[in-house]
Amino acid sequence: MASFWYHCGNERARKRALRINEKLRARYGLDIKLGARIGAGLRVSHYVGIVISQRSVIGENLHIKQNVTIGVKNLQQQGGVYIGDNVDIGANSCIIGDDIHIGNNVTIGAMTFINKDIPDNCKVYNKRETTISL
Q1: Which pLDDT value is given to residue 3?
Q2: DSSP characters for 45-108?
Q3: Around 111, how many Cα atoms within 13 Å sit in the side-chain half-sphere?
């Protein structure tokens, strides 16, 4: 609702949206900028630590876990982060860059750093092998 009011252009509605966003940030510990365009069907498993930049354009049915950052390198850049439909982003993942496009039906594994385009119908994860000897 706050996002709709923010984008409608009415100054009074924008101020109301900013107040709602501030309360949500304080209560749930997440920071979804009102400038972000997010399609229907957003699912958040755990609210803690989620940051979504105002330069993000996200399709429908995004499923996002805790401690995920979707953002830009700096505020002076021209592009943003574009995420397609039916995307699943694992915990502690980070998507940062300028003009990054993530396709439809993509699964991003936990603890994955994304700074390049990902085509449709892909699974992306960081392969890490750790051996602990006692």
Answers
A1: 82
A2: S--TT-EE-TTEEE-S--EE-SS-EEE-S-TT-S--EEE-SS-EE-TT-EEE-SSEEE-SS-EE
A3: 3
Structure tokens of 9?
């252009």
Q: What is the pLDDT of residue 130?
A: 66
d(CA 23, CA 34): 13
H or E element that contains 44:
strand 43-44
CA distance 14 to 112: 34
Question: Are 51 and 72 a contacting pair, CB within 8 Å?
Answer: no
- pTM: predicted TM-score of the whole model, two decimal places: 0.86
The pLDDT tens digits for 85-101 are 999 999 999 999 989 99
Confirm if 110 and 129 have CB atoms less than 8 A apart.
no
Residue ranges per domain, the chain?
1-34, 36-134
Cβ–Cβ under 8 Å, residues 95 and 71: yes
Topology of domain 36-134 in CATH is: UDP N-Acetylglucosamine Acyltransferase; domain 1 (2.160.10)
